[in-house]
Design a protein that fits this description.
The chain is an alpha+beta fold. The chain contains 10 helices and 10 strands. Strand 1 and strand 2 (25-28) form a beta hairpin. The protein starts with 9 loop residues before the first helix and ends in a 5-residue tail after the last strand.
C-alpha cells in the first residue's frame, strides 16, 4: 500500500469529496476542505505546499484547436503498468497519498484554465484516468440491459438477427440508443455516480450524460452477447473528455461514445433522438454534433479487448 490514507480504498477516496463526478467527467474540489487523518500527516509547524504546475498561456492569435490537432492521439496510447511506471504514476486501484491527491487537484484545476497540450500535466491525466477506472463499475451488461427492457422477441432485435456484417455495428448502436431513450429523460446533471446511484437513476427514468453513455454501452455489449458477436465489443469506446473554448478554457465536462475505424462520435444525450421510433434500424441515423463554442477534447477512453483497456489521447507533460 502506498503511504497515504490509512485503510481508505479508492471508492472511499472518491466519497471524501476530492473528486466530484460531474456529467460523466471530473471536477475537483479544494483538498484543504477535507477533514481526514493521513498517515504521516504534516503537523501545524510543517508546510506542504501545493504543487502548482507551471501554466503555459496561449500566445496572441494562437489557437488551442490547432495545437490539439497536432498533439491529439486519435487512437490513443494504451495505459498499462509500463505506462504508469514511465510517468511515475500510481495504480488508481491502490491507496493514494496526500501528495498524489494534492498534485491531482492542482494539476487538473490548472489544466482547466488553459487546456492546451503543454498543460496536460500528470495531475490532469491522473484525474481523468482515476475517474474512468471508478466508472468501470457501471459496466454490467446483463443486469443493466434488463432494466432498459432488452428483449430478444422485440421487433427491432429480430431485425438485427437478419443483418449481415455490413451495417450491423451501427444497427446495434441504434437499437441500444433507442432503448436508452425510451427509458430515460435528459437532465443536465444528476448527482451521484456510484453503481447504486446509477441503478437509482435508471429506475427513476432520468439521467445525465454518464447515465446515457453507460446505459447505451451496457445495452450494446448485452446485444452483442445475445447475437454471439463478441468481435464487435472493441469497435465501441466510452470517452471521457472536456469541451474547450477558443481561449483554451474548459467550459464543460462530458462523456460520449465513439465507434468504428474512423472513431465517429455518438452523442448519446441528443434530444433529436426519436425514442418512439417505429421504422427500421437500417433507416435510423446516429446523431452527433460539434461544439458551438469550441471543440470536444477526448482525454481518456476505454473499450473491451480481452478485458477493459484504457487509452489516453494526450501524453502527460
Amino acid at each position: 500500500m502506498i503511504n497515504g490514507f490509512k485503510n481508505i480504498n479508492r471508492r472511499e477516496f472518491l466519497k471524501l469529496g476530492l473528486f466530484t463526478l460531474l456529467s460523466g467527467c471530473t471536477t475537483i474540489s479544494n483538498i484543504n476542505s477535507i477533514d481526514v487523518k493521513f498517515e504521516n500527516e504534516p503537523t501545524k509547524t510543517e508546510t506542504i505546499a501545493k504543487t502548482e504546475p507551471k501554466r503555459i498561456v496561449l500566445k496572441e492569435g494562437e489557437s488551442p484547436f490547432l495545437l490539439w490537432k497536432k498533439a491529439l492521439i486519435e487512437d490513443g496510447v494504451l495505459v498499462n503498468k509500463e505506462f504508469l511506471s514511465k510517468y511515475n504514476l500510481p495504480n488508481p486501484r491502490d491507496s493514494l497519498n496526500y501528495k498524489i491527491q494534492n498534485e491531482a487537484t492542482c494539476g487538473y484545476e490548472n489544466f482547466k484554465e488553459c487546456a492546451i497540450p503543454e498543460n496536460f500535466n500528470r495531475g490532469a491525466f491522473f484525474t481523468s484516468f482515476y475517474t474512468a477506472t471508478f466508472l468501470e463499475d457501471l459496466i454490467r451488461p446483463e443486469r443493466i440491459s434488463k432494466i432498459f427492457g432488452l428483449d430478444k422477441n422485440d421487433r427491432l432485435f429480430k431485425e438485427l438477427e437478419n443483418f449481415g456484417d455490413y451495417g450491423l455495428l451501427e444497427g446495434i448502436l441504434s437499437y441500444s440508443l433507442i432503448l436508452t431513450h425510451k427509458k430515460l429523460k435528459t437532465e443536465g446533471f444528476v448527482e451521484g455516480q456510484t453503481f447504486s446511484d446509477f441503478i437509482l437513476h435508471l429506475n427513476e427514468g432520468r439521467g445525465d450524460c454518464t447515465d446515457y453513455c453507460y446505459g447505451t454501452a451496457n445495452n450494446f455489449y448485452a446485444i452483442c452477447d445475445l447475437l454471439n458477436r463478441p468481435d464487435l465489443n472493441d469497435k465501441v469506446s466510452i470517452v471521457l473528455g472536456v469541451e474547450v473554448d477558443k481561449n483554451g478554457k474548459v467550459i464543460s465536462e462530458h462523456s460520449w461514445i465513439e465507434y468504428g475505424k474512423k472513431r465517429q462520435r455518438l452523442e448519446t444525450t441528443a434530444d433529436k433522438i426519436d425514442k418512439d421510433f417505429e421504422g427500421n434500424l437500417e433507416d435510423y441515423s446516429l446523431y452527433t454534433f460539434s461544439s458551438e463554442n469550441g471543440m470536444f477534447l477526448p482525454l481518456i477512453s476505454f473499450r473491451f479487448e480481452d478485458g477493459i483497456k484504457y487509452y489516453t489521447h494526450c501524453l502527460p507533460r
